[in-house]
Amino acid sequence: MLVLTFHYKQGIPFDEAYYLNTHVAVLSKKTVLEMGASKYEVKKVLSSADGTTPRYSFIFSLYFETKEDLETFISDPRVQELKDDVANYYIGEQDIYIEEVVASFQGE
């Protein structure tokens, strides 16, 4: 499984209400599946383990079963609309990573 992850840096203005109610709302379950992803997660970073200010405020992750599914997502014309919308809630550059899940556990 591959994960495309967007990290939003702490200390940069971030419109949480717009992000959750408008930007993320565009990514309905149907849309995510049409674009090639199997699921997404939005995580709000509350603290760091050592008590220091965390590096990020939000982390958004899209999951893909195969490399081809990730490529389908990246080439989808709706991705440009999502990129263009970032300026409406965040003024910085996200840290973006492509990760491979090499071990996982999910309880029943």
From TrEMBL:
Which sequence ranges are marked TM in the entry? Answer: none
Q: Which domain of life is it from?
A: Bacteria
Q: Where is the EthD domain?
A: 17-90
Query: A Pfam family name for this chain?
Result: EthD
Q: Return the protein name.
A: EthD family reductase
* Native species: Paenibacillus plantarum
